[in-house]
Automatic annotation (TrEMBL):
InterPro entries assigned to the protein according to its UniProt record, in alphabetical order: WD-F-box_domain-protein, WD40/YVTN_repeat-like_dom_sf, WD40_PAC1, WD40_repeat_CS, WD40_repeat_dom_sf, WD40_rpt
Gene: SPAG16
Keywords: Coiled coil, Repeat, WD repeat
UniProt-annotated stretches for the region Disordered: 282-323
Record-linked SUPFAM superfamilies: WD40 repeat-like
Cited Pfam families: WD40
Ranges of the WD repeats in the UniProt entry: 387-428, 429-470, 471-512, 513-547, 596-628
Positions in coiled-coil regions: 154-188
Organism from which the protein derives: Odocoileus virginianus
Protein's name according to its UniProt entry: Sperm-associated antigen 16 protein isoform X1
UniProt feature, compositional bias: Basic and acidic residues: 292-301
Length: 628
């Protein structure tokens, strides 16, 4: 019993020595181990045999069949019973006894522990001393004992605990990050929610303001209608008053002639009139006839002085007949619509604002926002003349009826006249307070009219070099102006959505045309003068009967703005330059609309050649394009 009790104690002592206390003993037994030889654990690799070298045993065929001719009922029944028995045996499940897990021995545990911890020297000492004791018979393998299950489970639980702690740390970090993202998202949500509420409030406020403005605007419409009616009534009254004034002036002229004859006949009474005291003349009652005579004398004196001191031109009273009146009957050839892009002239660095054709030669003048106008020869497009002098962009230009002069309007508030034989500026008209949009020559060549952003138009006398009349009536920018062919009538188009017809001799508005819903950008006459065409900022083009002063037709090619309209020489084709770069051609006979596509950007201006075979257009890219 004593020997049996000492065996486990020796095993525990060996375990303690292996864990650290036996390191000193390893040095004492080093010589004995060297003498008897040492034992080591050696790693051996066992290779599997190749399947190619293995010989398989042939399996006999179990499908026995009864030879033909030896059939017997007893044997057949016996064979069926044997097959059923074999099937039952195969269907039975073989139950194996559970495999018991062999606990790990202490020496194996220690070796595995030292290998795991990388303590190779301690492992060598433990193996040498352990197997030395086994060889001497001091201890046996079966007496070494096994590692208790509780200890093994504790180690497994510790490993799992370490893994779980590591995972917990990772999860905490992920949770912290998620919490930060959540807080950030909540803040952004609150900010966007507050911003959305503010936008909704501003939207509701704008809706209320819009409703209030609509009501306010609706309240003004009746008043505006009444004012228009009053305006027309006043115009009629003004015309009647002017007629009465002319009649009174005629009567005064007759009385004046009668007075002259009376003075000649009774000239000897003149001294008596001269000696009348002044206080008696002042206090003497003055009748309507004497008052009219006195005013007539004063007006005649003023007119005499004006004729002596100025060189004002007179508006022609007998205009030559319009040579274009017979074009509709003589020109029976079909109108042309199949224009193709033929050439591109790059003349300006900034957008082209206007192009016009010379009345008698194959010359073209273009104006640009680069403050320069250029005259080019056709069809090559070589620059013949360049005009410099304006200090701001050029808006429009117009040839003198003879073709030897040019008028240009500019954003610098001036209108300049140029002598094309010398290429220099000969006259500058100043008087507008804002940019000048358009200019036009009278057919007699003595007057130039201009329209401006300052809501006025002016008629300039070329000979006296002064403004003869300023045309008031529009309430917004006057964007276009043009003389009726061979007449003293002017046509203006304004941003106040109206067209006005003026008498250039008196500077008075004779008629206004309403119908556009947006700002009018351009208006023009047909060569015969019986139709007016106008276009507005939303692409609507309207045709008006000038004789009846009524609208004829409305064509909507918007929403891009119509920048300019022009007729061909026959008056049967109307071209419109559109803000989307398209040139629209309207057949006035059939009502069909044709499109010319070629501009890469906005088209500002368009003009036909005199024969109608070529069309020229200018765009915002600084080019003039030729279509033929």
């Amino acid at each position: 019993m004593a020997a049996q009790q000492g065996t486990p104690s020796s095993a525990l002592r060996v375990l303690e020595e292996a864990l650290g206390t036996g390191l000193s003993a390893a040095g004492d037994t080093a010589e004995a181990v060297a003498a008897e030889g040492a034992y080591y654990l050696e790693q051996v690799t066992i290779t599997e045999a190749s399947e190619d070298d293995y010989e398989y045993e042939e399996i006999p065929d179990d499908n026995y069949s009864i030879p033909e001719g030896e059939e017997d009922l007893a044997k057949a029944v016996q064979m069926v019973q044997e097959q059923a028995t074999d099937t039952q045996i195969l269907e039975q499940k073989t139950v194996f006894s559970p495999k018991h897990t062999v606990p790990e021995a202490i020496e194996d545990f220690l070796c595995n522990f030292l290998i795991k911890m990388g303590m190779t020297r301690t492992l060598d000492c433990f193996q040498s001393e352990w197997y030395e004791l086994i060889q001497k018979g001091v201890t046996e393998l079966r007496d070494g004992g096994i590692v208790p299950d509780v200890y093994t489970q504790n180690m497994l639980l510790e490993n799992e605990n370490k893994i779980l702690k590591k995972d917990l740390k990772h999860y905490k970090q992920a949770a912290d990050k998620a919490r930060e993202d959540l807080l950030k998202t909540q803040k952004e949500r609150d900010f966007h929610r507050m911003h959305h509420k503010r936008i909704v409030q501003e939207k509701n406020k704008l809706i209320n303001d819009l409703k209030r403005l609509k009501l306010h605007y609706a309240s003004y419409e009746p008043a505006i209608r009444v004012l228009h009616e009053k305006h027309h009534a006043l115009l009629k009254q003004k015309m009647l008053t002017s007629l009465e004034r002319d009649r009174a002036i005629g009567q005064i002229s007759g009385l004046k002639e009668t007075l002259k004859h009376m003075e000649i006949r009774h000239s000897y009474h003149a001294p008596e009139f001269r000696v009348v005291p002044t206080y008696e003349k002042e206090n003497a009652p003055e009748g309507p006839t004497q008052k009219g005579l006195r005013e007539a004398r004063e007006q005649s004196k003023c007119k005499a002085k004006t004729k002596v001191n100025t060189k004002d031109s007179e508006f022609p009273t007998h205009m030559q007949p319009n040579p274009n009146l017979g074009l509709g009957k003589e020109n029976l050839c079909p109108a042309k619509f199949d224009y193709k892009l033929n050439n591109i002239f790059r003349l300006h660095e900034l957008p082209v604002s206007c192009i016009i054709m010379h009345p008698h030669k194959d010359l073209l003048v273009s104006c640009g926002e680069d403050r320069v106008w250029k005259m080019v020869g056709l069809p090559k497009g070589n620059v013949l003349l360049t005009g410099l002098g304006h200090t701001d962009w050029l808006s429009n230009c117009c040839f003198h009826p003879s073709g030897n002069k040019l008028a240009t309007s500019s954003g610098d508030t001036t209108v300049k006249l140029w002598d094309l034989s010398k290429g220099n500026c000969i006259l500058t008209f100043e008087g507008h307070t804002h940019a000048v949009w358009s200019c036009t020559w009278h057919s007699c060549g003595d007057f130039v009219a201009s329209s401006s952003l300052d809501t006025t138009s002016k008629i300039w006398d070329v000979n006296s070099e002064r403004c003869r009349y300023t045309l008031y009536g529009h309430t917004d920018s006057v964007n276009s102006i043009e003389f009726f062919p061979y007449s003293n009538t002017l046509l203006t188009g304004s941003a106040d959505k109206s067209l006005s017809i003026w008498d250039a001799r008196t500077g008075k508005c004779e008629q206004s045309l309403y119908g556009h819903m947006h700002s009018i950008n351009d208006a023009t006459f047909t060569p015969r003068g019986h139709i007016i065409a106008s276009c507005d900022a939303c692409g609507v083009t309207k045709l008006w009967d000038f004789r009846k002063l009524l609208p004829m037709v409305s064509i909507d090619v918007g929403p891009s703005p119509g920048n300019e309209v022009t007729f061909d020489s026959s008056g049967r084709v109307l071209a419109q330059a559109s803000g989307n770069g398209v040139i629209h051609l309207l057949d006035l006979k059939s009502g069909q609309i044709h499109k010319l596509l070629g501009h890469e950007s906005e088209a500002h201006t368009v003009i036909f050649s005199p024969d109608g075979e070529t069309l020229f257009s200018g765009g915002s890219d600084g080019t003039v394009r030729t279509w033929s």
